[in-house]
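@channel anyone free to eyeball this complex?
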Amino acid sequence: MLAASSMALVFADAEEQFLTTHPCVTNVSFSYGSSATLAAQIVNGSPADVFVSASERTMNTVSDSGRTVNTTLFARNSGEIMVNTASRFADTVTSLANLSKSSNPGIKVGLCVTTAPCGALADSILEKSGSTRRALADTESPSVEDLVSKIEMGELDAGIVYHSDCVNAQKNKRTLCVSIPAELNATNSYYVAALNTRNVTQQFVDFVSSPAFTASLQSKYGFLAP
Amino acid sequence: MKSQRVSPALKVVALIAAIFVALPLLSIVVRVPWSDLGNMLSQKSTRDALWISLQTSIIAAVISCLFGVPLAWLLARSASRGLSALRVVCITPMVLPPVVGGIALLTAFGRQGIVGQYLYDWFNISLPFTRTAVVMAQVFVAMPFLVLAVEAAFRQSDRGLEDAARTMGASPSRVFFTIAIPAARPAIVAGIALAWARSLGEFGASITFAGSFPGRTQTLPMAVYELVSVDYRLSLVLSLVLIFISVAVLAAMRDRWMAGR
Amino acid sequence: MSISLNGFVGRGDFERSLDFTIADGDVLAITGPNGSGKSTVVHTIAGLIPLRSGSLESDGAMWDAPDSQQWVAPENRTCAVVFQDLRLFPHMNVISNVAYGLRARGVNKDEAIERSKKMLTRVGLSSFDKRLPNDLSGGERQRVALARALVLEPRVLLLDEPLSAVDSASRAALRELLPEVLGSFAGATILVTHDLGDVEAMATANLSLN
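replying in thread with the prediction:
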């Protein structure tokens, strides 16, 4: 299974549940990364059974190449500002405007690359708030995983990540979340696709799109309803 | 040089090896969209990445030379046993996976780093994600190549000449500059070329320590990496540029690329 | 100026005890079969090889005394060497070779070149300035090496087998040049040679390492 990195934590927990409820499946292997990178891998022939993407565009890349059997929308995510608690700017970042260098000189901010779903999300948010990537960001991460870890490590002071990532990382007390007002925020869509007609493939897709699973995504991990 | 007779079996094996290496490189040359080449090369993102790559790699090569040649001299001339340990340490970045090098640089010079934290707390200097960091990552991985090549040359050089110079009144540093360096010039030039080529191709350490931002820290290899899943044709063009530069450097050095020959 | 060497020179097979003193105007020939350590004496006096024990003194100044840890570096000793293998710097032309020591000792460029040209004329190589060592014959190279040492006006001149690297044709000419040069040299000379003819022609004393 190839999945967007924002789903890494979710599936790590869900693996056991899936294996228990589906005893004829002995093993599920997961590979995480930026949806764009994974989509390219599948198009180039990667032998995956299931693809979970964080945007419609990256899913279209795969379905346009004919690799998908069916696709289902199962969750959404919105953006949030993640700040490192030990950063000297921790108290001064209360809104998107505070991420700029004019507001906080010396602040180091990260975004996902434009081609990744979390980057496209950030671009929508920036556009709505009248800012630009160039003015704000010091570095671009290929995946949201990478961005989150850089903020947690303290190499970056803040960044725009998914609400789900922020909520989960908060537990470690090394980061805090600053919400983005609804009128400036954007959402992205998560799709699950079966890449072949194997029985187990469809079982997994059904598992992911089941109401129980999608409900747990919202209650436990901070995702939004599809 | 007269060629010797080589057995046919050996020829076949050698040919397979050569084809295995040459084919992927030639494939890029074949698949590059030649008609769009000019267009793509003049795109802002391409020009930015090329400029950053050239600027940082040349600076890194110069720094590698300025600091690497004295280091090579120390390693070649000093008899102390602690120095063989130092040599191993200085050469390690050559065999280390570049991303590990990047993590090491972050651990030392990042904002929470062993040295970096003082740079940040006392002087407000934050090294990661700057162009300086790109140069640092490149020097880290490339300098060992220069040190290795030049040290070998210094080891093989004629100490008799250095002795003669000293009897004529030259201080050790004068001997270094007027006798040792001219004698090692071919190796120094080869070392700079290798260090430059390695800097140009650096990816893992640089992206970990300096991050990637177009126009600021995104080098040509990073641009290729990002483009592979997005604009494959452009990634081919940038790959061609890198291949071209590498081949040009190696061709210019021909068979002098091994130190001491 | 005098040089006084009293101690063990060299290592292992070469180790031997020597005791001699030479003064201005002396030409001490050091003779002995090949491998008897004659060159080692030259290298020791020049400061390239340390004494094992004993002392090497020059005009009251202690150049090398291992027991009392005294040591003067080669570049600070007032001797000049003509090595058996000549050791001309291959990447410099003749005039730069000859002027090297003067420049190293702080003489300005013009004066160094001036003095070097005069010395080259004295050894019979007046128009050889821009030539490269590799383009010269054995005899010509020998003269450059000699000029390079003499131009420094050293107090001690050390000549290690000066005629060995020379073809027989040039040897005759050098055989005439050398005594003339040594005759007008003000300091002390140590001449290492295995040729007794040289000893007769030029030496004022003989030390045999047998």
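from a first look: The interface with chain A takes residues 106, 110-112, 124, 126, 128-129, 210-218, 225-226, 228-230 of chain B (CB under 8 Å).
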